[in-house]
Amino acid sequence: MTDLHNQLYTKLKAGDKNAFQELFEEYYTSMYFYACKFVDDDLARDLVHDVFMIFWQNKENITIKSSLSAY
Question: pTM for the whole thing?
Answer without folding.
Answer: 0.82
